[in-house]
Amino acid sequence: MKKAIEGWIEANQSDLTALSDEIWAHAELGLVEHKSSKAQVEYLEKHGFEINSGVGGMETAFVASWGEGKPVIGFLGEFDALPMVSNKPVPYQDSLVEGGTGHGCGPQPFRCCRYWRRHCFEGTNDKQANTRCR
């Protein structure tokens, strides 16, 4: 299974990095992250997830589901930016837009790693094929 996971990550790393970079570039504040939400929904739909948008009355919130059966595994993904923390993608302070919004804790790569987890279950064996991810 380790080889299958490593192979999937290697084959899909550039797509997930591009998604992460796109979310970083949008740097949208909470509840108005329309471009970031759209990018994620399109990626997830392309990879077989069912999308339920507008969850909780929030236009940008969604639940992405894949698979069936038990257990049901849930992952939280946040992608809102923060005011006044705009930064170039470097490990030191270097504003991209002075006083602009940015990602202070890098949630977008963590979210992309969560998408990798879903794919770790896909096609590895029958027991895992019956796992449901949300």
Distance between the termini: 21 Å
The share of residues in helices is 40-55%
Instruction: Just name the CATH architecture.
Output: 3-Layer(aba) Sandwich
What is the CATH level 1 assignment? Answer: Alpha Beta
Q: Segments where pLDDT lies below 50 for 5+ residues?
A: 125-129
Q: Assign the CATH superfamily.
A: Zn peptidases
Shape: globular
Q: Secondary-structure element order, as H and E?
A: HHEEEHHE
Total individual domains: 1
Q: If you average the pLDDT, what whole number results?
A: 81
- Largest beta sheet: strand ordering: 1-2
Report the β-strand fraction as a percent range: 5-15%
CATH topology: Aminopeptidase
| SS summary, helix count | 4
- Radius of gyration equals 16 Å
Q: How many β-strands, per DSSP?
A: 4
Largest sheet: 2 strands, antiparallel
Structural class: mainly alpha
Question: What keywords describe this structure?
Answer:
two-stranded parallel sheet; 4 helices; globular; 134 residues; mainly alpha; 4 strands; Aminopeptidase; two-stranded antiparallel sheet
